[in-house]
Amino acid sequence: MTRKERYIEARSTQCLVCGVPLASYREQVLGLCDACKLAADHAQRGEQKKVSIELTPHMFDALRAYAKQRRARVSTIVKEALATYIPDYKPTERERPVIIPAESELGDYTLIEVHSPQGPLYAKISPVDGELIREFRWHLFQGHAARTVLDPVSGYRRRLYLEQQILNVPMGVRIRHLNGDRLDCRRANLSIIGIPPGETP
Asked: Are 60 and 75 in contact (CB under 8 A)?
């Protein structure tokens, strides 16, 4: 059996990472679509910290559909492509893949009012946090629910986000909303992603 015949026998008709149908012979031999291959090439050149990928509308639609089926972000699918194509590739802490939870996995919620210039909005919180949260007045800031507090260390007034209050972490701690909704502050939707040096959650 020739090398080309072995390739034809082993080639894939779909991208091994994102599931996009593979049309060209080159893609089928690699088992990766152009988008995943491009992402892998960037990482292989040492550009792991900032990967810039230009997707055609067809590629992006296919990746987005597959990500929705997997309940994951498109960036998560691309990072999996990097790990598949380059065995030694390890995403940094900031690049950690994000799995979007289903609504049924987030549990029940209650609504609290968030004041904004466009009118009142409502944030979702877990029922267990209702009594603690309702006594404060929350306003909208950069898509988050926040309130102004006095920093006990510096003495200056600072913003405390609703998610920080719920998880009882310092104001410098960064928290990710897994489903992308910054006003969905149910505990199952929150994940700590950044802690400043010298601080503990």
From this structure: no
